[in-house]
Amino acid sequence: MSDKVLLDYGSGGRASQRLISELFLKHLGNEELNRLNDAAELAVSGRIAMSTDSFTVDPIFFPGGNIGSLAVHGTVNDVAMMGAVPRFMTCAYIIEEGLPMDHLEIIVASMGEAVREAGVVIVSGDTKVVPRGAVDKIFINTTGIGEIIVDPAPSGDRARPGDAVLISGTIGDHGLTILGTREGLDFQARVESDSASLNHLLIRLVRELPEVHVLRDPTRGGLATTLNEITHSSRVGCHLDEGSLPVRPEVAGGCSILGLDPLYLANEGKFLCVLPGEDAEKALEIMRADPLGRDACRIGTMTDENPGKVALITRLGGKRLLGMLEGEQLPRIC
C-alpha cells in the first residue's frame, strides 16, 4: 500500500479491498466481520440499548489515547450507562486524502486493542476517502449495541430527593489534555486523558446494586452540565459539595492559569452514579476496588429544593448556582 491514503482507497475497487484486508481486518477482524457482508447477523435477546456517536477530536493523537481508542471508549460507555452489557459495534471512517498510512494504522490498531479490552465485537464497518480539505484528517462514526441486564434501566429521569451523587474519579483530565496538546501548552506536570472503557466496572455495580437510578458519563459540557440535564429530567435539585470534588492538582493549576472551570471540562473515563443514599458506601466500595474507580467519592445529594437547579456548596458555606455550559468552551473535544 501507499505511504499515504489516496482517493483510490475509497473507490470500492482493488485498492479499497487491499486497505480493508491488509489494515482493517488485520486489526479488527473477527468471524462476523471477516464475512464482508452488507450487514451483520446478530444474536440478541431481551431489551437492547443502542447508541451512535461521531468523533472529530483535534488533535487525533493525545496523551492517553487517540481518536481510534476514544471512539470505542465513548460508544462502549454510552451503552453501559443504560445498565447494559455492550456486545457489538459498527464503525465508519471518513478519511482525508493524504493522511499518512502509518497514522491510520496506529488508529485502527488502537481501536482493535480497545474493543478487545472492552469485550466488544466490531461486526460492520465502512470506509470513505474524501479530497483534501473535505474533512480534517479523519472522522469516525460508531454505533454500539448492548443487552440491558437490569429492570428498570438507569435513566436520567429517575433521580430522587435523598439520592447520593457519586463520581468515579477526578474531573477535567480529558478536556485539559486536549487543550494543552492542541495549543502546545506546558503545564509543568503530565496531564493525560482519562479515556477508558468503563463497562466492566459498571456491570459489576448494577449487578450488585440494581437500584442504581442514574448513570451518566460527563463528556462534553462536563460534570456541571450533565447534572443540570439530570435535574431537569428528574425535576429534582442537586447540592454539590465543592470540598469533595476530585480534581488533580495539575488540572486545577492549568485551569487556574487558563481561566477554565474543571466542572465544565470533558471527561472520557469517568461516570456519575445517582442512587439511594443508603447504598452509597457499598457503591463506593465496588467502584474503588477497580483501578478505574479508585478515586471514587460522594460529591453531593439530590434534594427537593429548587427542582432543575444545581447548587455548589462552597468551602465557605455559601451557595453558587451552576448552569449549563454557555457557548463552546473547547470545540472538537471528542
Automatic annotation (TrEMBL):
User: What organism does the UniProt record list as the source?
Assistant: Pseudodesulfovibrio alkaliphilus
Q: Which InterPro entries does the annotation name?
A: HypE (IPR011854), PurM-like_C_dom (IPR010918), PurM-like_C_sf (IPR036676), PurM-like_N (IPR016188), PurM-like_N_sf (IPR036921)
Protein's name according to its UniProt entry: Hydrogenase expression/formation protein HypE
Output the SUPFAM superfamilies linked to this UniProt entry.
PurM C-terminal domain-like, PurM N-terminal domain-like
Q: Which residues form the PurM-like C-terminal domain?
A: 160-310
Q: Which is an annotated Pfam family here?
A: AIRS_C
Q: Which CDD domains match?
A: HypE
Q: Which PANTHER family match?
A: CARBAMOYL DEHYDRATASE HYPE, HYDROGENASE ISOENZYMES FORMATION PROTEIN HYPE
Q: Domain named PurM-like N-terminal: which ranges?
A: 38-148
Q: Name one GO biological process term.
A: protein maturation
Please give the family membership noted in the entry: Belongs to the HypE family.
